[in-house]
Design goal:
- The structure holds two protein chains of two kinds.
- By secondary structure, chain A is α+β, with helices and mostly antiparallel strands.
- Chain A folds into two domains: 4-233, Rossmann fold (3-Layer(aba) Sandwich), CATH 3.40.50.300; 242-341, Nucleic acid-binding proteins (OB fold (Dihydrolipoamide Acetyltransferase, E2P), Beta Barrel), CATH 2.40.50.140.
- In chain A, 26% of the residues lie in helices and 31% in strands.
- In chain A, strands 6-7-8-3-9-10 form a six-stranded mixed beta sheet, sandwiched between helices. Chain A has a four-stranded antiparallel beta sheet with strand order 2-1-4-5, with helices on one face. Chain A has a four-stranded antiparallel beta sheet with strand order 15-14-13-16, with no helix packed on it.
- Chain A starts with a strand and ends in a 9-residue tail after the last strand.
- Chain B contains twelve helices and two strands, in the order αββααααααααααα.
- Chain B starts with 12 loop residues before the first helix and ends with a helix.
- Helix content of chain B is 74%, strand content 2%.
- Chain B has one domain (58-292): Orthogonal Bundle (MetI-like fold), CATH 1.10.3720.
- Chain A binds chain B through residues 51-53, 72-74, 78-80, 82-84, 86, 88-90, 99-100, 103-104, 131, 133, 147, 151, and chain B through 185, 187-188, 190-198, 201, 205-206, 209-210, 212, 294.
- Chain A: This is sn-glycerol-3-phosphate import ATP-binding protein UgpC.
- Chain A: Pfam families: ABC_tran, TOBE_2.
- Chain A: Keywords: ATP-binding, Cell inner membrane, Cell membrane, Membrane, Nucleotide-binding, Sugar transport, Translocase, Transport.
- Chain A: One of its GO terms (molecular function) is ABC-type transporter activity.
């Protein structure tokens, strides 16, 4: 077990393509950090640089106290779980797990013991003699995890390990990964483009965009105070609504807009912070037309268009309110629900 | 996989469209082959006036003939050496080309060229290179104290046809090995690298086992090639000589039948050759294929 420290880590490809533009990040020993961002934001490249599968153009990478920039993947004491699992198709599950130990010169009894232990932990004992092609997606996923586990490495690296599973299995494996990591307390770096996966798994999230860090923090910190419009739009589902400040200023009671930080020209409001009934605290009242009603079981999504504007907006309410498509809806927003942004810089103003 | 079923308005049209291919197969393959089987049970006198049915006599004779048994042994050595040589060199070249990124196409094109050369031309080419009088290679070998004359030395003649036959087949094997290598997922190599396997270990424990279906397929193709298609190479270089040193089964079929006019024996030999290849292929499918499935 070890910490992982990234100092100004950069990756440039031929033709002046900057995939990773100077990342500073300190991952503590035993921490579960999730790298999240849209495709092409450099998160996988960054993970592969930590693994040693991509060369490092600039900066320093430390695992524990060791600078590992130039070390081979095998010498970095890390284990990786791949998106397509990358199981060796010609080996049994047992040999898939044992391969890394054999290569490191472990003795047979020790290999046997470690493989059995990992298999027991992941409940794949009965498949040990099977070949990967005879396993289901979820079982393959477990074997891939087992292969990382048996090595007892300093850190686990996960490259979108759940994206090939169906929705139900994905939730189940997500919970298991989290429990496993809690139990083993192995430093983990996890890459995903799924914000829900990121929110639920990580001790801390790193939101990346275009090769740069947008924000680092605990999931709730990031959800409660997104540092930029990008983060605000990326974390949370449905995405945060962005409303021009000018528009709100033309809507009746606007006293509570006065104390917004200087520079604010756009206000973000989470779909759940738009209330259909007036709260006790001072609030804004906005009129809109209900265009589409979407019942999702425990909650409903109301797609509305703000009055005198063509701004599409989503409201999330629990249960199923008695509303009809086409009717005029009034919703209420308190000061605490407003996230102030500057649209030119894209950053939060305060 | 589902293939699309074509429907024809006229029920005779599909037969008409197939006819040329069927005719060619019938005239140039089925008919001569059945003639060979038929004449392997017959004996014709020297002037071709009288043909008598002799049953299995032709087969009994060739199996008792030491020169046939010698050819059998020689063919075994020849096919093993050509197969091993051409497959191992092809794999080596494929691994090299698979490593370069930019010029891979260029090398592939160059390496495939020999396949376009007709066997006889390939034979002539190597015959020139190894020609004891005017060839370049005997001249070079002389520096190392090796006196090269495949017209005299049977072993050297065998080496010559092995090189010529293998050289031609390397292209074919190379293409298949390259395709096989390219279909090994990159993530497996990366996983193995993280699992602590160096480049050589990765090759032996991951790449080679994953290539085994390709290797198996090529093994069968190569043995078939050596058994039948090396006639041109042998005819152009050593013509079975010196003595009988490079007389393989397929060349003996030709020598006894076309040159020696012993049609009965030659037919029996060609039927035997076909039988040997069928049995070998069967054995390979039966015992080797089981190991290459994963």
């Amino acid at each position: 077990m070890a910490s992982i420290t990234l100092e100004g880590l950069r990756k440039t490809y031929a033709g002046d393509v900057h995939a990773v533009k100077g990342i500073d990040l300190a991952i503590e020993d035993g921490e579960f950090v999730v790298l999240v961002g849209p495709s092409g934001c450099g998160k996988s490249t960054l993970l592969r640089m930590v693994a040693g599968l991509e060369t490092i153009t600039g900066g320093t990478l430390k695992i524990g106290d060791r600078v590992v920039n130039k070390l081979e993947p095998a010498e970095r004491d890390i284990a990786m779980v791949f998106q397509n699992y990358a199981l060796y198709p010609h080996m049994t599950v047992y040999n898939n797990l044992a391969y890394g130990l054999k290569n490191r010169g472990f003795k047979k009894p020790e290999i046997e013991e470690r493989v059995r232990k990992a298999a027991k932990m992941l409940e794949i004992e009965e498949y040990l003699e099977r070949k990967p092609r005879k396993l289901s997606g979820g079982q393959r996923q477990r074997v891939a995890m087992g292969r990382a586990l048996v090595r007892e490495p300093a850190a686990f690296l996960f490259d979108e390990p759940l994206s090939n599973l169906d929705a139900k299995l994905r939730v189940q494996m997500r919970v298991e990964i989290k429990q496993l990591q809690r139990r083993l307390k192995t430093t983990s770096l996890y890459v995903t483009h799924d914000q829900l996966e990121a929110m639920t798994l990580g001790d801390r999230l790193v939101v990346l965009s275009a090769g740069k860090i947008e924000q680092v923090g605990t999931p709730m910190e990031i959800y409660a105070r997104p540092a930029s419009m990008f983060v605000a739009g990326f974390i949370g589902s449905p995405a945060m609504n962005m409303v021009p400040l000018e528009y709100l200023q033309t809507r009746g009671t606007t006293d509570l807009l006065n104390d917004l930080p200087p520079g604010t020209d756009t206000v973000g409001i989470r779909p759940d912070d738009m209330r259909l009934s007036p709260p006790n605290t001072p609030h804004l009242i906005v009129e809109s037309t209900l265009e589409l009603f979407e019942a999702a079981g425990a909650e409903s999504h109301l797609y509305v268009r703000l009055a005198d504007s063509d701004q599409p907006t989503v409201i999330r309410v629990s249960g199923q309110p008695p509303v009809n498509e086409g009717e005029t809806l009034r919703f209420f927003v308190t000061r605490e629900a407003l996230h102030p942004f500057n649209s030119a810089t894209g950053l939060r103003t305060g | 996989m589902q293939t699309k079923r074509s429907t024809y308005q006229n029920r005779w049209l599909p037969f008409f469209l197939l006819a040329p291919q069927l005719a060619i197969t019938l005239v140039f393959f089925i008919w001569p082959a059945s003639q060979a089987v038929k004449s392997s049970f017959e004996r014709t006198d020297a002037f071709g006036f009288k043909t008598t049915f002799v049953g299995l006599d032709n087969y009994a004779r060739i199996l008792a003939d030491p020169s046939y048994l010698n050819a059998l042994g020689r063919t075994a050595i020849f096919s093993i050496s050509v197969t091993v040589l051409s497959m191992s060199l092809a794999l080596l070249l494929a691994v090299c080309v698979n490593r370069v990124l930019k010029s891979a196409k260029f090398y592939t094109t160059l390496l495939v060229w020999p396949y376009a050369v007709a066997p006889v031309v390939a034979g002539v080419l190597w015959w020139f290179l190894f020609n004891p009088t005017i060839g370049l290679l005997p001249h070079l070998l002389d520096w190392f104290g090796i006196s090269w004359n495949h017209r005299v030395s049977g072993t050297q003649a065998m080496i010559l046809i092995t090189i010529a036959a293998a050289w031609k087949q390397i292209s074919y094997n190379f293409l298949f090995f390259l395709a096989g290598l390219q279909s090994v997922p990159q993530s497996l190599m990366e996983a193995a690298a993280i699992d602590g396997a160096g480049p050589f270990k990765r090759f032996w424990t991951i790449v080679l086992p994953l290539l085994s279906p390709t290797t198996f397929f090529l093994l069968i193709i190569n043995i078939n090639y050596v058994m039948f298609d090396t006639f041109g190479v042998i005819d152009a270089t050593t013509a079975g000589g010196p003595g009988q040193a490079t007389m393989t089964l397929v060349y003996k079929v030709y020598t006894d039948g076309v040159a020696g006019l012993n049609i009965g024996s030659s037919s029996a030999q060609s039927v035997m050759l076909m039988g040997i290849v069928i049995i070998l292929t069967f054995i390979q499918f039966r015992y080797v294929e089981r190991r290459v499935n994963y």
